[in-house]
């Protein structure tokens, strides 16, 4: 790269932002990306994980549908380790109209989305838990995608191509000079570089040649810093996570639009979605009980066992929907899912910034390509986009994964899960000389994989979680959050590890609150007892004012502490020998 | 219909509450039967016997030195207020006698502060002998040791954490490789059995026993430390022998750091309590199956039914004690609509809106932690109107609601005190 490369600041570490950072860096731009939370902090980290076939838009929004199927096929190639080819079904129930079913079928064909009609019996052979009274189904190439893995892989690739990625770095002002945006003021929560708890923050002014506003639901707030009006219409949707995969195929309800009409199998879980309700503030909106109940009740009509199944948490995401001023759509479900590229020089007479808004995860790469094409044209650069062909780190050589499976002394389910997550990086990450115990039992995450994530993200255990899935299983971190924190030591001191643990534990608690009945309430109580009763983390004297009078408490059974010697006691070992069947509970 | 299996007092539940109830009833002279659904429960517990560390209404943030002092100030509905200080003392005396030299703490009313695997200290009233040398109020220099492949306890983190808590002793830490490289994700019981069996292992070309090799690995780190703490995996069958051998080789007192589940200390406690109950002449039936139904006549329970692999087995008794635990263990059940006690349908007070069952802070004052039956002064579960649900049903332990044992650090003490009282009453009325 030459010293004269244009310097571009990308605001936003969601799929769009990291996609742009990667593409721009690959084409020779000097790229800095800032994100106010961790990667995927916004909408990207709060979606159902569907890689659209385009089927959902085949009737109402065919432009989006065509983009989806093209990008779907590209991502299967360049992001193999992020995609699970589950396939998808549009299921027609007796109360869903035949007319819409036929429209769907026609739309799929018009948009060149492969579609196969299945009888009810064929659909139930594929997915035995589908309701007995369904009419029929259409099979489409939907898939499941891990948005965290996808974003991290894009960010790693961008860095490899010279980009600087700063998380926990918020844009607190845009610098405007003579009607031109020339840079931004960035507030780093814990200084520049990786996030480390207990590190003092700093403020940095970055002067650049162009800014890309890819802040998703926060796009309007960023634009407003330069007195530009971009009206994003945030719309919330709930996602409810089940403790197991009731289905292995994406299940869509074949009806025009509606809440609670999709189930996406994802890793060890299934995700139910969703609602579509406009909210005024993307960071502060009600998360409501009725939304969770609706998911379970409506989707039980497609998959009846969901009614009594265990949910492990619910979360909400906000779609950053946008439509040009004066369009005036009332219902957020009718707002287009297309994306828009707003050059503020042309649109508002203020140069130096382009906003990209709308769209969806499935088309993130295409959005990035078009945005970077625009930048290249602006700076008169002859460039070619290579992101549709060049695989992401981790998806480079599928053969590596199989070869690596047996090499690391891991039991097969552990090795298999690790390799699925790490893809072609498996060898690099797991090839360690040291001990490599499992740290998170639910998701089979080993010390080496956790260490690799810590290397990328400092003390931010939520960033470790999204990279590895540690803490995302049934126990929601109850059995592993403290083990994860221990892995930070000795690189980071105990105080930082404790702060990181407290933050992770609270984050895991937040989503579980929406699943607190039945078995997940039992799980929550077990977790609470382990962390409060046994570990005393709720009343930790180390977090108090340090005035605990140790001398007032029992110092041991002997009269003077110096002579205590427990091994003098007989221990009262019972004369019944035990069979060693003890303690084979979960956890270790 | 089969003739019911008969007893004077039938205890449902095999945790500390059920065991305390059955022991108490048997020692009062009743013919006792204990049934439990699970084979083991105590390996989920740390093996410490807490009484009360943090009273719910205390003015101070810190732990109370004397838990007995705090009892008169508890709310009237707290289980300790119901059985009284003397009830608690009597229950503890029974357990102290049963556990003998295996447990300490009965020489004083003061709480002990015990370092656990979480790294900080917690207040408890009774602790295994193997934990005694680790108490935080002891000012002798200590060394904490962890094993490379055991992720539940990190000695370095714990040592720094104890310093941050301000303990009066100097702390050091070391990580060693266990002499036999067990699988990377071996269960803790594997370490314990290897130390019990003490097989020969080759270390640096030398044949050694596992315990010797472990001592050799720790020895370079001991320095001036007068006591050495290891994760609580030092044997299931021969813990005293293992500690004595390590003590002699290292010339330092040896202690265990209580661990989370699966807990070896909890397993050892369970073995002792079951052995004592067997000695007391009670019938014990573990792992039979869940209690699925009951018959009652005019507010008196006549029979209950166990589901054993699909068969309904009737059990009859004059007195019944419910010791099935709280929401954690299924003694209290819930769905999206409400909370109930699943066997007898006893009333469980709870807010109608499930979003009032919890707080938004992870360690907030969660209502779900207090879910359980309300009991009268003789520990009989009460209906909504305040009258006993059944004339011959009592409750013991965490199935009783109205207190937050993880916050209070009061789980074992309440189980012992209410179990003792319920067992005595049931036996006298049988």
Structural class of chain B: alpha/beta
CATH architecture label name of the largest domain in chain B: 3-Layer(bba) Sandwich
Mean pLDDT of chain A: 90
Unreliable segments of chain A (pLDDT under 50, ≥5 consecutive)?
A: 559-588
Secondary structure tally, helices of chain B: 10
The percentage of residues in β strands of chain B lies in 15-25%
| SS summary, helix count of chain A | 17
| CATH homologous superfamily descriptor of the largest domain in chain A | FAD/NAD(P)-binding domain
Tally of individual domains of chain A: 3
Q: What is the averaged pLDDT score of chain B?
A: 95
Poorly predicted ranges of chain B (pLDDT <50, ≥5 residues)? none
- The counted number of beta strands of chain A is 23
Would you mind describing this structure in some detail?
- The complex is a heterodimer of chains A (588) and B (430).
- Chain A is α+β, with helices and mostly antiparallel strands.
- Chain A folds into three domains: 7-43 and 148-231 and 337-378, FAD/NAD(P)-binding domain; 52-58 and 83-144 and 234-318, D-Amino Acid Oxidase, Chain A, domain 2; 432-539, no CATH class.
- Chain A is built from 17 helices and 23 strands.
- In chain A, the strands form five sheets. In chain A, strands 5, 6, 7, 14, 15, 16, 17, 18 and 19 form a nine-stranded mixed β-sheet that branches. In chain A, strands 9-2-1-13-21-20 form a six-stranded mixed β-sheet. A three-stranded antiparallel β-sheet of chain A has the order 3-8-4.
- The longest helix of chain A has 19 residues, at 494-512.
- Chain A is globular, with a radius of gyration of 26 Å.
- Chain B has two domains: 5-103 and 267-429, FAD/NAD(P)-binding domain, CATH 3.50.50; 117-259, 3-Layer(aba) Sandwich (Rossmann fold).
- In chain B, the strands form six sheets. In chain B, strands 1, 2, 13, 14, 15, 16 and 19 form a seven-stranded mixed β-sheet that branches. A four-stranded parallel β-sheet of chain B has the order 8-7-11-12, with helices on both faces.
């Amino acid at each position: 790269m030459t010293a004269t490369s244009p310097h571009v600041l990308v605001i936003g570490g969601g799929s769009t932002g990291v996609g742009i950072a990667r593409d721009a860096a690959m084409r020779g731009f000097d790229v800095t990306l800032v994100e106010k939370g961790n990667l995927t902090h916004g909408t990207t980290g709060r979606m159902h994980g569907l890689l659209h076939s385009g089927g959902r838009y085949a009737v109402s929004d065919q432009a989006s549908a065509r983009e989806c199927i093209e990008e779907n096929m590209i991502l299967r190639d360049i992001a193999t380790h992020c995609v699970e080819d589950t396939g998808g079904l549009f299921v027609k129930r007796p109360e869903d109209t035949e007319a819409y079913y036929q429209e769907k079928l026609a739309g799929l064909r018009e948009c060149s989305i492969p579609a196969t009609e299945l009888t009810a019996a064929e659909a139930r052979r594929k997915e035995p838990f589908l309701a007995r009274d369904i009419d029929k189904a259409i099979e489409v190439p939907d898939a499941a995608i891990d948005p965290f893995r996808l974003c991290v892989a894009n960010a790693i690739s961008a860095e490899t191509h010279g980009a600087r990625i700063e998380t926990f770095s918020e844009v607190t002002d845009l610098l405007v000079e003579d009607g031109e945006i020339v840079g931004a003021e960035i507030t780093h929560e814990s200084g520049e570089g990786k996030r480390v708890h207990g590190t003092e923050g700093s403020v940095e002014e970055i002067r650049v040649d162009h800014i890309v506003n890819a802040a998703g639901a926060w796009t309007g707030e960023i634009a407003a810093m330069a007195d530009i009006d971009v009206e994003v219409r945030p719309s919330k949707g709930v996602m409810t996570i089940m403790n197991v995969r009731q289905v292995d195929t994406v299940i869509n309800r074949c009806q025009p639009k509606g809440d609670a009409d999709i189930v996406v199998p994802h890793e060890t879980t299934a995700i139910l979605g969703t609602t579509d309700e406009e909210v005024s503030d993307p960071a502060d909106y009600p998360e409501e009980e009725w939304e969770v109940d609706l998911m379970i009740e409506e989707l039980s009509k497609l998959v009846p066992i969901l009614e009594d199944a265990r949910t492990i948490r619910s979360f909400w995401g906000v779609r950053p929907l946008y439509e040009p001023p004066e369009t005036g759509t009332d219902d957020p479900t009718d707002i287009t899912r297309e994306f828009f590229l707003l050059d503020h020089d042309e649109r508002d007479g203020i140069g130096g910034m382009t906003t990209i808004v709308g769209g969806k995860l499935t088309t993130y790469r295409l959005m990035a390509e078009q945005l970077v094409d625009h930048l290249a044209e602006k700076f008169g650069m002859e460039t070619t986009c290579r992101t549709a062909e060049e695989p992401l780190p981790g998806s480079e050589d599928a053969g590596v994964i199989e070869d690596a499976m047996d090499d690391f002394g891991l039991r097969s389910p552990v090795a298999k899960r690790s390799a699925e997550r790490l893809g072609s990086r498996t060898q690099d990450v797991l090839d360690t000389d040291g001990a490599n115990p499992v740290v998170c039992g639910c998701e089979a995450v080993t010390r080496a994989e956790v260490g690799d994530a810590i290397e990328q993200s400092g003390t931010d255990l939520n960033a470790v979680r999204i990279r590895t899935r540690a803490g995302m299983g049934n126990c929601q971190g109850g059995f592993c959050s403290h083990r994860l924190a221990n892995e930070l030591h000795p690189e980071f001191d105990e105080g930082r590890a404790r702060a990181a643990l407290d933050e992770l534990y609270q984050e895991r608690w937040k989503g579980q609150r929406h699943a607190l009945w039945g078995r997940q309430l039992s799980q929550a109580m077990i977790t609470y007892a382990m962390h409060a009763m046994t570990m005393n983390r709720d009343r930790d004297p180390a977090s108090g004012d340090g005035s605990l009078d140790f001398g007032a408490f029992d110092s041991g059974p002997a009269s003077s502490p110096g002579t205590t010697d427990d091994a003098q006691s007989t221990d009262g070992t019972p004369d019944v020998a035990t069979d060693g069947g003890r303690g084979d509970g979960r956890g270790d | 219909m089969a003739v019911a299996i008969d007893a004077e007092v039938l205890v449902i539940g095999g945790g500390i509450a059920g065991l305390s109830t059955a022991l108490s009833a048997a020692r009062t002279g009743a013919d006792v039967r204990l049934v439990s659904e699970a084979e083991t429960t105590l390996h989920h517990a740390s093996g410490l016997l807490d009484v009360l560390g943090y009273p719910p209404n205390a003015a101070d943030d810190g732990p109370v030195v004397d838990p007995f002092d705090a009892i008169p100030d508890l709310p009237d509905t707290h289980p300790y207020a119901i059985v009284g200080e003397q009830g608690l003392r009597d229950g503890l005396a029974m357990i102290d006698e049963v556990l003998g030299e295996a447990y300490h703490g009965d020489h004083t009313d003061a709480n002990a502060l015990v370092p656990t695997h979480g790294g900080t200290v917690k207040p408890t009233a009774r602790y295994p002998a193997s934990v005694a040398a680790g108490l935080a109020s002891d000012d002798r220099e200590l060394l904490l040791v962890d094993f490379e492949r055991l992720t539940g306890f990190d000695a370095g983190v714990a040592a720094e954490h104890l310093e941050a808590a301000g303990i009066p002793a100097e702390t050091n830490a070391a990580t060693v490789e266990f002499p036999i490289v067990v699988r990377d994700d071996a269960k803790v019981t594997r370490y314990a059995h290897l130390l019990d069996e003490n097989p020969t292992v080759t270390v640096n070309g030398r044949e050694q026993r596992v315990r010797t090799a472990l001592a050799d690995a720790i020895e370079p780190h001991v320095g001036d430390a007068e006591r050495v703490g290891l994760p609580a995996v030092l044997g299931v069958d021969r813990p005293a022998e293992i500690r004595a051998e390590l003590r002699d080789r290292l010339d330092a007192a040896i202690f265990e750091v209580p661990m989370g589940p699966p807990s070896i200390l909890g397993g050892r406690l369970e073995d002792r309590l079951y052995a004592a109950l067997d000695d007391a002449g009670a019938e014990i039936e573990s792992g039979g199956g869940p209690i699925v139904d009951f018959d009652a006549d005019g507010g008196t329970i006549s029979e209950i039914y166990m589901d054993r692999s699909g068969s309904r087995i009737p059990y009859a008794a004059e007195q019944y004690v419910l010791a099935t635990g709280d929401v954690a263990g299924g003694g209290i059940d819930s769905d999206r609509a409400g909370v109930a006690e699943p066997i007898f349908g006893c009333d469980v007070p709870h807010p109608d809106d499930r979003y009032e069952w919890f707080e938004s802070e992870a360690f907030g004052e969660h209502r779900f932690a207090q879910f359980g039956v309300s009991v009268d002064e003789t520990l009989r579960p009460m209906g909504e109107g305040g009258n006993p649900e059944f004339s011959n049903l009592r409750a013991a332990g965490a199935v009783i609601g109205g207190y937050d044992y993880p916050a209070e650090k009061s789980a074992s003490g309440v189980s012992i005190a209410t179990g003792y009282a319920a067992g005595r009453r049931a036996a006298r009325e049988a």
